[in-house]
Amino acid sequence: NFSIDRHLVKKVKVVITGVGNHIIIVKVLRDCPSLAEMAEEDIILPRISFMHTLHSGHTLLCQQFPLAPAYSTTFHSCEGLTYDKIGIDLTRPVFTHRQLYSALSRVRCRTDAKVRLQVEERMTTNITYSAFRKSCCTSFFESKIEKN
């Protein structure tokens, strides 16, 4: 945890707004993946240096910023969230159809979801299609009945 008061804790999402040789300037995203929900405050993160003396007597200098690039998440950690755009990698099969349903239902419009399949494949494997279709169709028809 870098600064609990400023919400700089493990797994917090930030947007990099500036980069220098010795600093990175970030803004914290507040409980929403939209850039409109960024905190007003610029936070300056310094480059951190570590020195290690090796058994050979040499000194190893490591310099890094206290950030880890985040460009992916798991199916379960995105439940309950809505994203503007998503990409789903299905080059390895999902365990159940509910995982795929959970991932695909994170966007408002199907054009905002991109799905990556194996080369030369038009559909993924290891999914219970009948149960997936049934759950989709049931919720679709129930919403039509409620509106009428």
Summarize the structure.
The protein has 148 residues and is α+β, with helices and mostly antiparallel strands. Helix content is 18%, strand content 24%.
Blueprint (SSEs and pairs):
Blueprint: E1 14-19, E2 23-28, E3 43-46, E4 48-53, E5 59-64, E6 86-89, H1 97-104, E7 113-116, H2 129-147
Parallel strand pairs: 6-7
Antiparallel strand pairs: 1-2, 2-3, 4-5
Give a quick account of the main beta sheet: strands, pairing sense, barrel closure.
3 strands, antiparallel
Give the structural class. Answer: alpha+beta
Helix content: 10-25%
Order of helices and strands: EEEEEEHEH
The tally of structural domains comes to 2
Q: How many distinct beta strands? A: 7
Question: Cα distance, first to last residue?
Answer: 52 Å
Question: Which geometry do the CA atoms define?
Answer: extended
As laid out across the biggest beta sheet, the strand order is 1-2-3
Mean pLDDT: 72
Nearest-angstrom radius of gyration?
A: 22 Å
Low-confidence stretches: 140-148
Task: Give the number of helices.
Answer: 2
Strand content: 15-25%
Any overview of this molecule?
By secondary structure, this protein is of the alpha+beta class. It folds into two domains: 1-50 and 61-70, no CATH class; 76-147, no CATH class. The chain contains two helices and seven strands, in the order ββββββαβα. It has helices spanning 97-104, 129-147; strands at residues 14-19, 23-28, 43-46, 48-53, 59-64, 86-89, 113-116. The strands form three sheets. The chain has a three-stranded antiparallel sheet with strand order 1-2-3, with no helix packed on it. A hairpin with a 5-residue loop joins β4 and β5 (59-64). It is extended.
